[in-house]
Amino acid sequence: MNIEFLGTGGAMSIPRPLCTCKVCIEAREKGVPYSRTGPSIFLHGPDLLIDTPEDSYVQINRSTIREINGVLYSHWHPDHVMGRRVVESISADWRNHPPENDPVDVFLPEQVHNDFDRFLGSGDHFNFFKEQGYATVHKLSDDENIQMSDTTIYPFRLAESYVYGFLIENDGRNVLIIMDELNNWQPPEFMKNIDVAILPAGIFDVHPLTGEILVSPDHPVLKEEATFKETVEVIEKLGAKEVYLTHIEEVNGLSHDTLKVVEEKYAEKGIRFTFAYDTQIISI
Length: 284
Fold this sequence. Notes:
This is MBL fold metallo-hydrolase. The protein has 284 residues and is α/β, with parallel strands linked by helices.
C-alpha cells in the first residue's frame, strides 16, 4: 500500500491569498514543496480518499490517483470538507440519458454523520448526492470498521470526541492516521510501536529553533489545539517506526527549509519524524 499526501497544509494553506510574508512569497515563486494545500491523504490499494478540502480538484488532478473507491471523513471542519463536490465530479454521468452514474462509497463515522447534519450544509449536500445517484453514504457506528480489499480501517474517536483518527491494517503492517485535533489525546498501549504514524504537526507557539514566541500565551487557540511540543510528546509515547507530520499552518510562518532543520535538530536528540509535503508518496 502506498500513501499519497495530497495536501499537507492546515486551515490556512500556503501561500495564503494576498499574504506578502516571506513564506507565502517563497511558496508562490517555488511551488511544491514550499506551497501547501488543504489537508487530504489518499491510500493506494484500497483507493480511499481521506477528507476533501477546497483544493481537492487540484490535488487529485496533479496526483497519481487513477481510481477512487471510497471517501472517508475525519470531522466536519471546513478545511476538511468544503471540497466535497469532487464526489459529484468523479461519479456523475453528464453525457448519457438516462445517466449511468458510478456512485462513490462515502464513509461517515457516527459523530461525523451527526455533525454533517448540523454544520456547513454537508448533510444536505450528501443527501443530494444520494438522490442523484452520485454517492452511497455509509454511517458507521463507533464499533464498526471498513473492509476494502486486503485493508481494514478502524475509525476511533480522539480526545476531541467529534474527530476521528484511523488505524489501518494492511498486509501485516499498521498505520495510524490522525488528520487533525491531537489536543489532549494519549495513545493507548495497543497503538504503540506501530509501523507508521501520520499526525498533525500542531501549533508552533514558539519558534522551534530560536525560542521566539509566535503565539500569545493567552491566545484561546492554545486551549483548543495541540502545540508542536505536545505533538512531539505524543511521538515519543507512540514509538512508531516512522512518523510523518502534516496539517502545517501558514500562521506558523515556517518555511519548508526551516522545517527540515527542525527535523535534524530533533533527530540529534533521538526523536525522528518527517514533515510531509504535498505530492509526497510513501510506501508501507
